[in-house]
Write a structure and sequence with these properties.
binds 2-(butylsulfanyl)adenosine; five-stranded mixed sheet; five-stranded antiparallel sheet; 668 residues; globular; alpha+beta
Length: 668
Amino acid sequence: MQTRYNDLVAKINQWDYEYYVLDNPSVADAEYDQVFRQLLEMEADNPELITPESPSQRVGAKPIDEFRKIEHTVKMLSLANAFSLEETFGFFEKAAKELELSPASLELFSEPKLDGLAISIHYEKGLLSYAATRGDGQVGEDVTHTIRTVKSVPLKLAIPNPPEKLDVRGEVFMPKAAFEKINRQAVQNDSKVFVNPRNAAAGTIRQMNPKIAAERDLQFIPYGLGEYEGEQQFTRHSEILAYLHRLGFRKNPHCYAFLGSFEAFEKNYQVMEQTREKLPMQIDGIVYKVDSLELQTALGFIARSPKWAVARKFPAENMVTQLLSVDFQVGRTGVLTPVARLEPVFVGGVTVSNATLHNMDEIERLGLGIGDSIEIQRAGDVIPKVVKVVATGTHRAPIVMPVRCPVCDAAVERTEGQAAFRCTGGLTCAAQGAERIKHYASRRFMNITNLGTKLIELLYSKGCLNTIADIYSLKLSDIADLEGQGEKSAQNVLASIDASKSTKLGTFLGALGIHEVGEEGAKSIAKYFKNLDAIAHASFEDLMQVPDIGPVMATNVVNFFKDEKNQAIIAKIIGAGVCWEDEANEPVKQQRLAGQTWVLTGTLQQMPRNEAKALLESLGAKVAGSVSKKTTCVVAGQDAGSKLANAQALGIKVLDETEFLAEFKLAD
Ligand code: IVH
């Protein structure tokens, strides 16, 4: 069994190596998955077999709760920068002079400067032991839990006699394609978009939860060694890189060995400038290093950087252009985002004619007007940004937020305290339409199993589904006539719409997609008010009484139900037969303690504290842990202390246990 287990581990590790390090897979996904499943089953049945290098052990079980500090045995240095050919050549001219050599006889090595995060990975006897960020160069943070999830980082070195100790130094980064993918997802989920791949990599490595890191496709490429105790000796930097590749690490693409003449630097830079756009990862320059380790030692360091290496940075990709106009785009949740339309300019290898302006606060901060000459920057970011106004335009026009939604003509409003302006069109705004319907039908909410996102988009684009209410008037032919659908699948869709009609109040409320009112918020509101009518007529103050509901949610709920179009849609849905059990069928008024906050303190003799709490909550009260001005009443048992004193100081009503039981007719 042990042999079979070792074989499975070795086999999957080899496949991972071929896929993630060599970019040369040798096995079909299905076979890979099948063997991986066998390994997982074997480990589940025989947990004693599990080894740290097993591919199942990349994602550790638990998230960490803080980053431990790790001291680097060999300091992690940084690099001096050069911004022109002259500066780069000058750097090595000086080094050559110190070595009493001519620059043109200096053997150099060039590597792409990967735009990510410096990491040191420590191996003990060939096994990954820990990984740390650079930190201040001396002490970094322990990120072993996320680095282990990076598939191009071997958990075990791929040679028979690994070194006793080894620090592999390199860059962890997010390839361009992976970056675009997570940002597409972020846009879909309305969550934070990363500005560039470096931030995305840093944010991922500094995740507490390794599961999240494992879902993002990070890569690691080494560029040197830290601590090293091994048999193999090196005379050149390029030998070290070749050795690291033999140990199972990826190779940095487009490295060149050359002699340090001015012309050679020039040629190298031209080649790299052209290669840059085609590379799968973002690079922000070229690192030039003296290849001989002996000469490196002879040159040594100055401050925190070596005298044998320099980073030639690509120039910042800034250009000046004119702001022609500003459009407002309406997103899924109704937020209006200003987008700058620009006189097209060529920057960072592409022609740019749009830039994001984020929100009106940003426009104000920049002091931007239509017709201005502006500087834009594209520093590896997907969407260029406006850096500053260079010159104000002669026929300048101010940028104004429209008062009506450009898509549905509903009023635009700003929620107090927020930067965003929103369309109030809600369920009727087409910009929010398809996404709202997807949200409504999704598994978490109405769970209309056969009405998937693709189908919703199709029906929406054909005009068969404009609002969520239209789901219930879909005809068999609306679906059956679509490409790729038949009568049978159309029947299934209609059947699943029917089956979804019986739901819960909280689920339905969440399905409506009221901004900021998620699954939990909707449940709390439903639990508190018990029926839709009460929610629809609740005031801001009423909603503020609901546990966990703040002013933003309360405002959004009030505005949503105030809107006649939304009312009509809801009426239509209910008319179509969507229903839920009226939670306890109790109107709000019967809740004797609705809106009150009670505090229990001291020891109750006749009733356990949790029962008293449950009783109060069942009558609609909120039970709080501390006394404040908002407290309605304090129940003071024996040995009540500071809470009782506080209540007395604030003049709040206090009941002792007997009075409390009498109040609710619970006394014998
Ligand atoms: S060599 C002692 N090589 O750039 C020199 N660094 O600005 C150690 N970097 O902290 C660095 N690609 O994170 C080296 N091919 C490369 C690199 C590289 C990216 C990063 C590294 C370093 C930073 C310095």
